[in-house]
């Protein structure tokens, strides 16, 4: 079963749910805004995504600009702390299947992820 880190206010996240539903793909929704991930869960997710915390930051999010982060000097541990405190900054949707994960864009990549 695929797990979806979902933000209901995100149109792309809602579109992925609709696509999965239309294609009879079983999935579990994890609303990471209402139920934020723990720091350990964020670290585990980053391993499954095979990426650094800075790669899943939504840099256009208003709260990102408010935080005025210097991504050149900030540690990965501090970025994980920021993602924990401000889950809205995390890219979405994120699909998780067993030991791998992907950011759910573009849709063609989602199709490939589901099939493999």
UniProtKB/TrEMBL annotation:
Keyword Ligase attached: no
Highest taxon in the source lineage: Bacteria
GO MF annotation list: arsenate reductase (glutaredoxin) activity
UniProt entry tagged with the keyword Oxidoreductase: yes
Entry keyword set: Oxidoreductase
A Pfam short name: ArsC
Stretch forming the signal peptide: none
Family recorded in the similarity comment: Belongs to the ArsC family.
Protein name per Swiss-Prot or TrEMBL: Arsenate reductase
């Amino acid at each position: 079963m695929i797990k979806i880190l979902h933000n209901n206010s995100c149109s792309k996240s809602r579109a992925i749910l609709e696509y999965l539903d239309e294609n009879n793909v079983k999935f579990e929704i994890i609303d990471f805004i209402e139920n934020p991930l723990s720091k350990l869960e964020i670290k585990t997710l980053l391993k499954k995504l095979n990426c650094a915390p800075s790669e899943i930051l939504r840099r256009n999010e208003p709260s990102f600009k408010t935080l005025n982060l210097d991504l050149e000097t900030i540690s990965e541990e501090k970025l994980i702390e920021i993602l924990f405190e401000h889950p809205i900054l995390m890219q979405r949707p994120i699909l998780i299947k067993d030991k791998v994960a992907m950011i759910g864009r573009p849709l063609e990549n989602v199709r490939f992820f589901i099939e493999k």
